[in-house]
Design goal:
CATH superfamily of the largest domain: NusA, N-terminal domain
CATH architecture of the largest domain: 2-Layer Sandwich
Mean pLDDT: 80
Low-confidence stretches: 378-426
Largest sheet: 5 strands, mixed, barrel
Number of helices: 14
């Protein structure tokens, strides 16, 4: 082996050890690059192969002749005299390029299977579109859509985030992280609660409104372990660590139950539920609470009810005891509602078209019909009209002893004026 070849192999081995790349990988990449360099020569064979002896470092080029089936029928040594210089120039470029490719692949493989994990990074850059986090070997991208609206990320601050996607690009892996994903809550509790990491306690469901409030339902596989107490910790130490990482976001921990009624009652905490009525067909749960608990059950701007609905998977309708009593006593429940729709006729006017068919009517006609129905409720047809007429006639007829008879008063005044006129003329 020549001194040059020895130095070449020694340098190649040192690079392979430093970068974590096998020597065979580098030699294969170099051989492929040398084939391309050889074929650029004017006297090069159409097909060729380059071999590099891993022990001696000797480089040989063999020209090949192939038949129609692509099989080698003749092979000869076609190594150029100045191929050592070409090999040296090519080796540097190929090795550097291959090292970059392998490093990109290694970084991608390191994070490719980590979707759903939590990472800690240092804020490097922030603008209106995204925030960059330095994870050490790579950078993570925190898009604006995955950021909590009121959070501000200062340069150099440490931040935990949830990996939602790992993309493979020509510049290396692109890691997309989130601060709003519900999975971030689960991973933070796994870090703070050993019982969750060991599988004794499970987070069965989670619902979150980032930056404001989160609800999680927990379950214990050990009857001797309280799942809520394990997550909250002594004097709330464990849940406080999660809240601090989320920068003050409130976290409610409730016990999970296979019984949907009990789960809905727990999910609406801290409100106390009196009764839950389930409608399996529509997936609706009607929740009855005391009057003074109604606002607490609904929450600020409906937040408590929304989170409970997401946590349980049921559509929740909350009513107070007074509202329920009014509905059961009558209210709108026993009234008959007209079925139909308002549509435009040929002239562009709105008319009411009954659902059961029939002629359409204008708003004025529909109003008159409603008034007539209100005058004689529960009656219809000629008999109803006939029964109503005597009542109107009696009401309109003057009473004999009525103190307010305008016609009688007018006649009396006229007679008195005429008598006074006759006396004056006489």
């Amino acid at each position: 082996m020549s001194k040059t070849n020895f130095e070449f192999l020694d340098a190649l081995g040192q690079i392979a050890r430093d970068k974590g790349i096998s020597v065979e990988t580098l030699l294969d990449a170099l051989a492929n690059a040398l084939v391309a360099a050889y074929k650029r020569r004017p006297d090069a064979a159409e097909e060729a192969v380059v071999t590099i002896d891993p022990d001696s470092g000797e480089i040989r080029v063999y020209g090949q002749e192939l038949n129609e089936e692509g099989e080698v029928i003749r092979e000869w040594d076609d190594t150029p005299d100045d191929f050592g210089r070409i090999a040296a120039q090519t080796a540097k470029q190929v090795i550097l390029q291959r090292i970059r490719e392998v490093e990109r692949d290694m970084k991608y493989e390191e994070y490719a299977g980590r979707e759903g994990d939590i990472v800690t990074g240092i804020v490097q850059q922030t603008d209106n579109r995204y925030t960059l986090l330095d994870l050490g070997k790579v950078e993570a991208l925190l898009p604006q859509a995955e950021q909590v609206s009121y959070e501000r990320y200062e340069h150099g601050a440490r931040l935990k985030a949830y990996i939602v996607e790992v993309r493979k690009t020509t510049k290396g892996p692109q890691i997309v992280v989130s601060r709003t994903h519900p999975g971030l809550i689960k991973r933070l509790f796994e870090l703070e609660v050993p019982e969750i990491g060991s599988g004794v306690v499970e987070i069965k469901a989670a619902a979150r409104e980032p930056g404001h409030r989160t609800k999680i339902a927990v379950w214990s596989n050990d009857p001797n372990v309280d799942p809520v107490g394990a997550c909250v910790g002594a004097r709330g130490s464990r849940v406080r660590m999660v809240t601090n990482e989320l920068r003050g976001e409130r976290v409610d921990v409730v016990p999970f139950s296979d019984d949907p009624v009990e789960l809905i009652q727990n999910a609406l905490a801290p409100a106390r539920v009196r009764e839950v009525r389930l409608d399996e067909e529509t997936g609706t749960a009607t929740v009855i609470v005391s009057d003074f608990q109604l606002s607490l059950a609904i929450g600020k701007e409906g937040q408590n009810a929304r989170l409970a609905a997401r946590l349980t998977g049921w559509r929740i309708d909350i009513k107070s005891e007074t509202q329920l009593a009014e509905e059961e006593a009558g209210g709108y429940g026993e009234q008959d509602w007209a079925e139909g729709e308002w549509v435009e006729d040929e002239s562009g006017d709105l008319v009411w078209k009954p659902a059961e068919g029939g002629e359409a009517m204008s708003a004025e006609e529909w109003s008159h019909q409603a008034e007539d129905a209100a005058v004689a409720p529960g009656t219809d047809g000629p008999e109803a009209d006939g029964a109503a007429e005597p009542e109107r006639a009696d009401a309109a007829a003057p009473q004999p002893n009525d103190a307010t008879e305008p016609d009688a008063q007018v006649d009396t005044v006229t007679e008195q004026q005429a008598a006074a006129t006759e006396e004056a003329e006489a």
